[in-house]
């Protein structure tokens, strides 16, 4: 640099500088160049400020060459800014050399002007890339032309006069070099402008050049991913930059995530794991469980070696810092006189290399997570395969909620356990190395410190054991909560109809309270464990220093700060010990639960011998076989079964409720355990379940069921199942998406989709379990004739049915009773034989007698009907439904119905309002402020204690010196304890508040929400998202606050000792913040994609468990497993690339820290030896070394906090849902006796399911008198069940009114309405618990009343046969009771309610005709003084009604007595009756 003795910038004005330059004065040229640069910088800065808000931010078109050149110039300007700032050390050094006299202002001003000019140049160039106007180009050209003129003579003179070359070249040569670069750029620019329209906006060039040129000009980021990355790219994690760059351009979608390696895929890992798991199972003796961990270790031990090797490397480099601190302090104290400045610089270089090698920690984290993902996919796939093989007993023990909880909670522990294991294993090695260094520094005193540490660590293991107990209890209680939650959400329609909202809300909240107790115990124990571990380095330091004092050793700065640095290094693994041990223990608990699940009973593959092809003449051949649901139970499901069904035969199975019809089909399928005899099934099987099982996919996908599309066969399946008209009326045809569990389809439509699936399968054997129960007579006739006896005429068919009228057309009839075949033969033979089958036929004849009697009465009364009335009825019957199929005209092939709402996905950053909401959820943020204060206090105590040590012990008592340090540091530890306890308390309280708000909002949401929202989305928020908010997030937020304070403090302490560091720290901080924004923009999108991929995993798991029987019957386990693998891998890719992005950022932020630490050491080496005391130098180095750990902790916890805040965001989405009307409106409560009559009036009632959807009820008006018995009939999908939803206000009317006893039902609360009406729903729903709990959930009735009710609904004998009587168990979904028995329980529930209005919504669809007659008789006897609305497909169920309402396409077409409607041959009701009597084969004479 030009010496100040030659030049004094204060002696020159601008004119003097110019003329001095013309005279080739050495001191004028650099000053003039700096002045001109600063002048242009000011002009550019003003221009940027003026035009900043007036230009659109867009991407400019440029060639790859110019784009690269532009980046080089941009970063060159930034580097020169940093270099100029670093050069300021020179005038400061001169100032110190002159004992702080005559500060060289001239040199400092020149350098600052240069730095300012280069900084504005950097800003301008950086801005140029993102703005349309080439604002900087003109100034760039002019400035560098002048710079060349001014700098070239100065460069020559600088060399000639022997001035310090390094800095002068910076000032005078760089502009010259940049001018040459500019000339090249201008030439290239003109060439590209001429040939490629470079520099024009998209609007100017897009119409003039091909699309391929656009692609070439602005290439997509490299998304090849990890699998194709080279060594250097993997070393620096640069392979993930393509994805990060894409995330900064637009929101990332699932398809953007690059594929993973073959060894990471779910199928590969399952195959590897299953081999060792099966080996463990074979080696295990009876009565014990195989070891899950043995199988996992044997599968993945090779993969564990790489993280372990990296961990050892990291541990070695981890302790480079303390050794170098000691060496540098030795150098500064001149203990070795032969050491020169070159030795000091060599130490700095070694330090930088060591800190760079310490970045291996990021590879340790990444490789551990990769291995964890492989374990996750392998074991997770095994869990899924297990769910496909669960026996019926196991499915009763393990609910959908319990299995989902294992996948969402327990399986996730694999992602963390490998890193925890490596760090846990390495702790002894790290402590030994640390002990050796301490012994080298402080001698024998280290033994006392280590003894204290071991004592504290032993105490912590006691706390960890407690944490394990609390964690296990918490997971068990969470299982119970999730099981009830899933059951509640799955049956929300029934719950709302019964007005049980508050009952289930209270039940879930009680289970949550138990879970919360375990959680609180766990979190408070964790807080105490944190306190104990944070005490370790403080206690070790204090004990060591006191021991040194007792031994009479000196406490000099080198020993103190080398020891403190070593304690700081040891502190990280020791402080991570609770988390590591906790993760390992949680994994052990979770592993035990997964182990138990993987060992539960499976379906017996040998129960039935299934052959795809065989030469036997029988498709089903069972000889003297007995089957049971539970091998430990005494009761048999099917007894002494001998059954041979020839190929191509059609066998029908009938019997009363609970007689064993469905059990017979299960026996044929091999779903039950065979105890005796033999069973064989030949050919491919198709199965139609009694309760329709539908996937959340399109209608087409449900029918194809994983098979390729064959148009002819598909069309035939649609025709045979009678779906043609339905598909025409749907806006998107067969691409219409079905809601979860087929919620947006009627019962009949779901059954017909199942039938179409079976027909399309082109199987050999068809097992149909009561497929006609949910359809009307016309549709049932079509299905029997066109499907069973048409499309399946050459197939083997076993048809379970209550429709006796179809039995004449079958080859053989089997009659079941108490699990045995009591009769079999042809229809005529069984009629002659009588007995049980004769009772069924008699019941049919009785029902037909009532129908025919009604027809006779109608004929007799025809003369009494006026011509005007007959004309009116005929006109009503002939009305055309103009709206039918209206929506089909706009449908387009390939589109999907949007009934299922796409999951809401926020784009952009986590809003500050969300952070504020989380912080102020409880006590308006008071806890958050307290946590910040305690963190600040703890760190202040720590800094004060270390600063006290830095002052040195000379001139004061050594005891006082150490004692005061001990007071300060223990004050900090107490602050940590209070912070941890308050963090745990506030975290639990906040999570509980968020959960309660969400739960209550969900319970009050309208049915439309449950119809359009897959169950998996709600479950994921109640499970994994909830866990994130109550465990992970509070800790991450608290530690982030502490890390921010620690990082700021470390930088301030180091900068206080070496102020020059600020010139390095500030630019590095700006770069780091910019990189973080670049990183976090993409990362939050990856997290959201990952969260959206999580719900399909749970949904698929739940659907699989619910439809296991159907899946196994079709033998589609492999297809479902492949689908599961795809969903696993989608979620896995999100997890993998999230960890890769976090590691990329951690790597480069840690690298920045390494530069800063080396910068501190470099400054200390360059400073004169007498400029700083060794204590202050040691303080600076100690805190500089701590920056790496603090910054790593900060970035990790900030990433965790922001990612977990997305869980808060997702929970908040379901905390602000639209709600139903209030349950109770105090100002409009009906009287306690309401409704005392039961008079129902509909006035132009209009009803639609969605605001944008079509009307489903279209202006229905009618009056139902008090105590009147009204039947409602109509074709499938005519709107019958919709009328029930309108009556119960499951959706608010779109128009018109509905009055009960003159009271508009929309003016009262929903609870007051729904609790006063009884309903027996179309799909019987009973809940896990007991018989008593299902009949009387509010415990309002005595045992006597309950037994009387059971007598009335024909279940008393069955319940008495149970040893527990009224306390007999009901499994989830009532799976241990037949569908007919569940329906009778629902009837008993209605009998106990004793409401004035009873609604039967297809209440007898699932029972035989005899039981149907008994139910109808029970209703007539016990609901005689009630208004009864009976919706039915069976004509006998409504034929004795006082009035019949006929619905068609949402219109009320007919409203009259059965006699009146039957007297008119043109009426719709007449046609329905005629179809029913025709299909029975029994005509009325």
Automatic annotation (TrEMBL):
<feature type="domain" description="ABC transmembrane type-1">
    <location>
        <begin position="929"/>
        <end position="1203"/>
    </location>
</feature>
<keyword id="KW-0677">Repeat</keyword>
<comment type="similarity">
    <text>Belongs to the ABC transporter superfamily. ABCC family. Conjugate transporter (TC 3.A.1.208) subfamily.</text>
</comment>
<feature type="transmembrane region" description="Helical">
    <location>
        <begin position="72"/>
        <end position="96"/>
    </location>
</feature>
<feature type="transmembrane region" description="Helical">
    <location>
        <begin position="524"/>
        <end position="551"/>
    </location>
</feature>
<feature type="transmembrane region" description="Helical">
    <location>
        <begin position="1061"/>
        <end position="1080"/>
    </location>
</feature>
<dbReference type="InterPro" id="IPR017871">
    <property type="entry name" value="ABC_transporter-like_CS"/>
</dbReference>
<dbReference type="Pfam" id="PF00664">
    <property type="entry name" value="ABC_membrane"/>
</dbReference>
<dbReference type="InterPro" id="IPR044726">
    <property type="entry name" value="ABCC_6TM_D2"/>
</dbReference>
<keyword id="KW-0813">Transport</keyword>
<dbReference type="GO" id="GO:0005524">
    <property type="term" value="F:ATP binding"/>
</dbReference>
<keyword id="KW-0547">Nucleotide-binding</keyword>
<protein>
    <submittedName>
        <fullName>Uncharacterized protein</fullName>
    </submittedName>
</protein>
<feature type="transmembrane region" description="Helical">
    <location>
        <begin position="304"/>
        <end position="329"/>
    </location>
</feature>
<feature type="transmembrane region" description="Helical">
    <location>
        <begin position="139"/>
        <end position="157"/>
    </location>
</feature>
<feature type="transmembrane region" description="Helical">
    <location>
        <begin position="31"/>
        <end position="52"/>
    </location>
</feature>
<dbReference type="InterPro" id="IPR011527">
    <property type="entry name" value="ABC1_TM_dom"/>
</dbReference>
<dbReference type="InterPro" id="IPR027417">
    <property type="entry name" value="P-loop_NTPase"/>
</dbReference>
<feature type="transmembrane region" description="Helical">
    <location>
        <begin position="447"/>
        <end position="464"/>
    </location>
</feature>
<feature type="transmembrane region" description="Helical">
    <location>
        <begin position="1036"/>
        <end position="1055"/>
    </location>
</feature>
<feature type="domain" description="ABC transmembrane type-1">
    <location>
        <begin position="308"/>
        <end position="586"/>
    </location>
</feature>
<dbReference type="InterPro" id="IPR003439">
    <property type="entry name" value="ABC_transporter-like_ATP-bd"/>
</dbReference>
<keyword id="KW-0472">Membrane</keyword>
<feature type="domain" description="ABC transporter">
    <location>
        <begin position="620"/>
        <end position="843"/>
    </location>
</feature>
<dbReference type="Pfam" id="PF00005">
    <property type="entry name" value="ABC_tran"/>
</dbReference>
<feature type="transmembrane region" description="Helical">
    <location>
        <begin position="169"/>
        <end position="188"/>
    </location>
</feature>
<dbReference type="GO" id="GO:0016020">
    <property type="term" value="C:membrane"/>
</dbReference>
<feature type="transmembrane region" description="Helical">
    <location>
        <begin position="1141"/>
        <end position="1167"/>
    </location>
</feature>
<feature type="transmembrane region" description="Helical">
    <location>
        <begin position="108"/>
        <end position="127"/>
    </location>
</feature>
<dbReference type="InterPro" id="IPR050173">
    <property type="entry name" value="ABC_transporter_C-like"/>
</dbReference>
<feature type="region of interest" description="Disordered">
    <location>
        <begin position="860"/>
        <end position="898"/>
    </location>
</feature>
<keyword id="KW-1133">Transmembrane helix</keyword>
<dbReference type="InterPro" id="IPR003593">
    <property type="entry name" value="AAA+_ATPase"/>
</dbReference>
<keyword id="KW-0067">ATP-binding</keyword>
<dbReference type="InterPro" id="IPR036640">
    <property type="entry name" value="ABC1_TM_sf"/>
</dbReference>
<feature type="domain" description="ABC transporter">
    <location>
        <begin position="1240"/>
        <end position="1474"/>
    </location>
</feature>
<feature type="transmembrane region" description="Helical">
    <location>
        <begin position="1179"/>
        <end position="1200"/>
    </location>
</feature>
<feature type="transmembrane region" description="Helical">
    <location>
        <begin position="915"/>
        <end position="939"/>
    </location>
</feature>
<dbReference type="InterPro" id="IPR044746">
    <property type="entry name" value="ABCC_6TM_D1"/>
</dbReference>
<feature type="transmembrane region" description="Helical">
    <location>
        <begin position="959"/>
        <end position="978"/>
    </location>
</feature>
<feature type="transmembrane region" description="Helical">
    <location>
        <begin position="420"/>
        <end position="440"/>
    </location>
</feature>
<keyword id="KW-0812">Transmembrane</keyword>
């Amino acid at each position: 640099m030009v010496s100040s003795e030659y030049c004094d910038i204060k002696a020159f004005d601008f004119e003097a500088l110019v003329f001095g330059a013309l005279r080739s004065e050495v001191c004028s040229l650099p000053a003039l160049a700096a002045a001109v640069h600063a002048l242009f910088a000011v002009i550019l800065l003003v221009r940027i400020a003026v035009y900043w808000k007036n230009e659109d931010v867009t991407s400019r078109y440029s060639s790859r060459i110019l784009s690269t050149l532009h980046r080089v110039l941009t970063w060159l300007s930034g580097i020169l800014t940093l270099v100029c700032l670093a050069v300021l050390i020179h005038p400061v050094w001169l100032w110190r050399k002159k004992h702080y006299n005559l500060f060289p202002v001239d040199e400092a001003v020149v350098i600052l002007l240069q730095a300012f000019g280069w900084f504005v140049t950097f800003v301008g160039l950086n801005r140029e890339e993102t703005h349309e106007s080439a604002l900087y180009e003109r100034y760039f050209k002019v400035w560098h032309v002048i710079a060349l003129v001014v700098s070239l003579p100065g460069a020559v003179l600088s060399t000639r006069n022997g001035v310090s070359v390094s800095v002068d070249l910076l000032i005078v040569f760089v502009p010259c070099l940049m001018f040459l670069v500019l000339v090249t750029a201008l030439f290239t620019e003109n060439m590209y402008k001429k040939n490629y329209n470079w520099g024009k906006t998209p609007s100017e060039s897009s119409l003039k050049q091909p699309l391929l040129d656009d692609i070439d000009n602005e290439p997509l980021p490299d998304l090849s991913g990890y699998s194709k990355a080279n060594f250097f790219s993997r070393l620096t994690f640069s392979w993930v930059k393509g994805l990060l760059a894409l995330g900064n351009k637009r929101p990332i979608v699932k398809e953007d995530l690059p594929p993973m390696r073959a060894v990471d895929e779910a199928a590969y890992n399952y195959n590897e794991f299953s081999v060792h798991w099966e080996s463990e199972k074979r080696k295990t003796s009876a009565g014990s469980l195989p070891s899950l961990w043995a199988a996992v270790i044997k599968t993945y031990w090779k993969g564990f070696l790489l993280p372990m090797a990296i961990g050892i490397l990291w541990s070695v480099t981890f302790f480079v810092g303390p050794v170098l601190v000691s060496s540098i302090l030795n150098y500064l104290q001149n203990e070795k006189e032969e050491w020169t400045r070159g030795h000091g610089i060599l130490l700095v270089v070694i330090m930088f290399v060591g800190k760079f090698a310490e970045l291996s920690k990021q590879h340790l984290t990444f490789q551990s997570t990769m291995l964890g993902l492989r374990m996750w996919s392998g074991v997770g796939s095994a869990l899924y395969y297990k769910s496909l093989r669960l026996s019926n007993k196991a499915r009763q023990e393990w609910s959908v909620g319990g299995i989902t909880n294992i996948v969402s909670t327990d399986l996730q522990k694999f992602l963390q356990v490998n890193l925890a294991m490596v760090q846990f294993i390495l702790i002894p090695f790290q402590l030994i190395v640390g002990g050796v260094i301490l012994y080298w520094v402080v001698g024998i005193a280290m033994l006392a410190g280590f003894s204290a540490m071991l004592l504290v660590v032993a105490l912590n293991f006691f706390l960890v054991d407690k944490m394990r107990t609390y964690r296990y209890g918490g997971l068990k209680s969470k299982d119970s909560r999730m099981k009830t939650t899933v059951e509640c959400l799955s049956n929300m329609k029934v719950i709302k109809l019964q007005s049980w909202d508050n009952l289930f809300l209270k039940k879930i909240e009680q289970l949550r309270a138990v879970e919360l107790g375990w959680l609180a115990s766990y979190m408070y124990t964790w807080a105490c464990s944190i306190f104990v571990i944070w005490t370790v380095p403080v206690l070790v330091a204090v004990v060591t220093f006191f021991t040194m004092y007792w031994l009479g050793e000196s406490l000099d700065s080198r020993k103190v700060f080398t020891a403190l640095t070593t304690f700081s290094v040891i502190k990280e693994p020791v402080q991570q010990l609770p988390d590591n041990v906790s993760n390992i223990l949680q994994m052990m608990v979770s592993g035990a639960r997964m182990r138990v699940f993987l060992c539960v009973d499976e379906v017996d593959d040998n129960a039935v011998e299934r052959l795809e092809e065989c030469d036997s003449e029988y498709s089903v051949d069972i000889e003297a076989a007995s089957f049971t649901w539970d091998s430990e139970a005494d009761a048999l499901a099917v007894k002494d079964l001998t059954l041979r069904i020839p190929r191509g035969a059609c066998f029908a199975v009938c019997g009363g409720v609970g007689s064993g019809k469905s059990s017979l089909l299960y026996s044929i399928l091999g779903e039950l355990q065979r105890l005796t005899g033999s069973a064989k099934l030949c050919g491919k099987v198709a199965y139609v379940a009694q309760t329709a099982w539908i996937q959340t996919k399109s209608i087409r996908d449900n029918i194809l069921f994983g098979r390729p599309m064959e148009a002819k066969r598909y069309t035939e399946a649609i025709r045979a199942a009678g779906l043609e008209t339905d598909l025409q009326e749907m806006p998107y045809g067969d691409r219409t998406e079905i809601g979860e569990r087929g919620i947006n389809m009627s019962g009949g439509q779901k059954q017909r989709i199942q039938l179409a699936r079976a027909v399309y399968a082109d199987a050999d054997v068809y097992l149909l379990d009561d497929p006609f129960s949910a359809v009307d007579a016309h549709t049932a006739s079509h299905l029997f004739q066109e499907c069973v006896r048409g499309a399946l005429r050459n197939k083997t068919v076993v048809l379970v049915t209550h429709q006796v009228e179809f039995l004449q057309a079958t080859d053989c009839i089997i009659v079941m009773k108490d699990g045995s075949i009591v009769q079999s033969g042809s229809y005529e033979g069984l009629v002659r034989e009588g007995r049980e089958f004769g009772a069924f036929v008699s019941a049919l004849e009785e029902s037909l007698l009532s129908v025919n009697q009604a027809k006779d009465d109608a004929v007799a009364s025809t003369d009494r009907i006026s011509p005007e009335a007959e004309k009116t009825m005929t006109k009503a019957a002939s009305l055309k439904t103009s709206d039918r199929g209206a929506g089909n005209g706009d449908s387009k092939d390939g589109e999907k119905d949007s009934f299922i709402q796409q999951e809401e996905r926020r784009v952009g950053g986590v809003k500050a309002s969300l952070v504020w909401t989380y912080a102020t959820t409880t006590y308006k943020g008071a806890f958050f402020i307290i946590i910040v204060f305690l963190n600040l206090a703890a760190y202040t105590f720590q800094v004060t204690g270390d600063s006290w040590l830095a002052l040195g012990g000379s001139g004061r008592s050594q005891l006082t010196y150490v004692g005061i340090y001990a007071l300060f540091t223990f004050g900090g530890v107490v602050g940590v304890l209070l912070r941890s306890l308050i963090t745990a308390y506030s975290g639990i309280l906040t999570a509980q508040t968020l959960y309660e708000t969400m739960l209550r909002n969900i319970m009050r949401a309208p049915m439309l929400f449950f119809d359009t929202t897959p169950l998996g989305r709600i479950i994921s928020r109640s499970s994994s998202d909830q866990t994130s908010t109550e465990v992970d997030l509070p800790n991450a937020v608290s530690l982030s606050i502490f890390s921010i304070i620690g990082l700021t403090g470390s930088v301030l302490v180091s900068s206080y000792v070496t102020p020059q560091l600020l010139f390095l720290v500030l630019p590095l901080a700006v770069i780091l913040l910019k990189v973080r924004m670049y990183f976090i923009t993409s990362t939050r999108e990856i997290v959201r994609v990952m969260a959206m991929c999580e719900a399909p995993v749970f949904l698929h798991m739940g659907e699989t468990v619910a439809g296991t029987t159907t899946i196994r019957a079709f033998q589609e386990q492999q297809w479902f497993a492949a689908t599961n693998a795809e969903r696993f891998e989608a979620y896995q890719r999100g997890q993998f690339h999230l960890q890769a992005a976090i590691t990329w950022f951690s790597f480069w932020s840690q690298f920045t820290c390494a530069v800063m630490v080396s910068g501190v050491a470099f400054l200390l080496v360059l400073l004169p030896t007498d400029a700083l005391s060794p204590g202050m130098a040691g303080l600076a180095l100690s805190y500089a070394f701590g920056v790496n750990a603090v910054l790593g902790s900060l970035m990790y916890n900030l990433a965790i906090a922001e990612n977990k805040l997305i869980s808060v965001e997702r929970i908040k989405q379901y905390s602000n849902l639209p709600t139903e009307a209030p349950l109770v409106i105090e100002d409009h409560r009906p009287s306690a006796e309401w409704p005392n009559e039961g008079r129902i009036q509909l006035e132009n009632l209009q009803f639609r399911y969605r605001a944008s959807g079509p009307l489903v009820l279209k202006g229905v008006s009618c009056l139902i008198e008090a105590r009147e018995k009204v039947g409602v009939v109509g074709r499938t999908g005519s709107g019958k069940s919709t009328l029930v939803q309108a009556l119960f206000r499951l959706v608010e009317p779109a128009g018109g009114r509905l009055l009960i006893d003159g009271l508009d039902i929309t003016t009262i609360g929903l609870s007051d309405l729904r609790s006063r009406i009884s309903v027996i729903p179309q799909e019987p729903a009973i809940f896990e618990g007991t018989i008593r709990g299902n009949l009387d959930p509010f415990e309002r009735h005595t045992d006597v009343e309950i037994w009387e009710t059971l007598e009335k609904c024909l279940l008393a004998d069955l319940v008495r046969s149970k040893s527990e009587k009224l306390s007999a168990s009901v499994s989830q979904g009532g799976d241990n009771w037949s569908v007919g028995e569940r329906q009778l329980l629902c009837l008993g529930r209605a009998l106990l309610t004793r409401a004035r209005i009873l609604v039967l919504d297809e209440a007898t669809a699932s029972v035989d005709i005899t039981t149907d007659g008994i139910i109808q008789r029970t209703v007539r006897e016990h609901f005689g003084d009630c208004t009864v609305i009976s919706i039915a497909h069976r004509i006998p169920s409504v034929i004795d009604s006082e009035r019949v309402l006929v619905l068609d396409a949402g219109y009320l077409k007919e409203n009259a007595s059965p006699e009146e409607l039957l007297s008119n041959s043109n009426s719709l009701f007449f046609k329905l009756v005629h179809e029913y009597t025709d299909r029975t084969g029994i005509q009325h004479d």
